[in-house]
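U., I forgot to send this yesterday:
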Amino acid sequence: MEIWFYHLTRQPLDRVLPGLIEKSLERKWSVVIQIGTQERMKALDALLWTYSDSSFLAHGTDQDEDAERQPIYLTTGFETPNAAKVRFFVDGALIAPFLTQPAAGFERLILMFDGNQDDQLVSARQQWAQLKQQGLALAYWQQDEDGRWQKKA
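Result:
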């Protein structure tokens, strides 16, 4: 299992996340998005239905039926009802507590953080140090001037 850190510097999460989800689905990976708060989960729920005039990303939450059939599942908890291969951690969600749960089947865990928000930057640095100390394989990606991802570590 790979753990990747995505450092947003040019575009906000709401513009970047849908594209990364689409790439995951192209790989035939179902997705879980773990979000820090219920309020933010409601905002992302709406975003995935409306992020593009020509498309939407079908998904569900714990409020919906058939969670196991959802290609994308949004949560503030640790559940993974859809046998996801990739899990995004956004808006304050922490990786380390999740790793205390059974995490079988995941190909990749991705922490996305806004480098323009001090609290998210500090949290990401703390998480990096903690996970590195545990001997986990980490990768760090940062947006370049054009908003493309460059691997930095």
